[in-house]
Amino acid sequence: MEAVNHYFKGAYEESRKEFRHLLSLIQSKWPGAKLYTKFIGEEEDNTIDVLYAEADESNRQVLFMTSGEHGIEGYAGAAVIRLFVEEWIEDMDPSETGICLVHAINPWGMRNFRRVTENNVDLNRNYFLNPSAIPRDINSMYEKECHIFLPERPVESIEKEKTSLYESLSKGMMKEGYKGIKQAKGMGQFQFERGVYFGGKEEEPSVTYMKSWQETLLNRFDRIVHMDWHTALGPSNEVTMVMSKENKKHEEELMEWYGLNNIQVFSPEKVKGDSTNYFYELKKEKFPSKHLTSALFEFGTFGTSRQAELREFITIILENQLYWEGTKNHESREWIRGEFMNMFYPQDRNWKESVLMEARKAIQSVLRAEGILPR
């Protein structure tokens, strides 16, 4: 357990402190490395922290690792970044390789063990080339079924709530089809400010700051390799690589190239405001000659069965309902909070050990294939 606790922390401040301490290790390889801190939101001490160093001789390539875009998921992301620094930076070539590591893109969410920002925004539905072009009514399926996704009353007994949601989701699937309900969830929505999967009505400060780093890296380096760490999606206790179609490679090609079993390619038409897709669009528009590999890496929790996806729906909806509407039922409150942790930051030792093991596989496979690490 001691080894697991070395990487996984129990509070935002502790995780941030450990991340900042990585600066000395990075400076042993890149003496000019610096820590950049950006205060985010209205609360006094919520920050995005960035460890950054350019290459010593020529900026041929850079490794860009990000964590905490979905708040609570940042605990696993920070663990993986620490693992990477302690086990692999010695193998990197600082003469032509830079490094950029990011802790807690959504610091409020990480501090409060939520996925969203204090404005209820899912940051991975908030990235658009033109911030004024954030859509409003694009997700018609969500609008049709908003009574499922946005219960406007306090949480009652947990068994009653689960039964009610199962019935509502089953009816919605009968009416709109299973794919329709999944589409309503996956696309994001931009109308209901208190609803789940809300992409915002304007650009979030965290997004503005991260866009500036994306542009900086594209401007200064010829090749950018981006690994963005997340939790929940995919087979339990396994890592899944998720990449935009803008990468121009099919899943089979990616599996062969990287040697990973779980790879998904998504369409920008079905997922709006994704950060990695925005990265590709920015590269295409302003830096067409540069090489970019940008992908999410998800550590699975509930699994991929139909039952697991229903469990995910119910957990997300009830956690949001609890936050906005509250409850007088102590059992319901504790169940929802516990289930939300099970989905995004399980305290199970086996899961944490699997994150470290699967992260090692992903890091070695991707960074060797991309030339960041020697083969």
Any idea of the CATH topology of the largest domain?
A: Aminopeptidase
Radius of gyration: 20 Å
Fourth CATH level, the homologous superfamily of the largest domain: Zn peptidases
Helix content: 40-55%
- CATH hierarchy: architecture of the largest domain: 3-Layer(aba) Sandwich
Tally of structural domains: 2
Q: Mind describing the biggest β-sheet?
A: 8 strands, mixed
Q: Tell me the span between the first and last alpha carbons.
A: 32 Å
Oligomer: single chain
List the SSEs and their pairings.
Elements: H1 2-7, H2 12-27, E1 34-39, E2 47-53, E3 61-67, H3 74-88, E4 97-103, H4 107-111, H5 140-144, H6 146-149, H7 158-176, H8 178-187, H9 205-220, E5 223-232, E6 239-244, H10 251-258, E7 263-266, H11 275-286, E8 291-300, H12 306-325, H13 330-344, H14 349-369
Parallel strand pairs: 3-4, 3-5, 5-8, 6-7
Antiparallel strand pairs: 1-2, 2-4, 6-8
Helix pairs in contact: 2-3, 3-14, 7-8, 9-11, 12-13
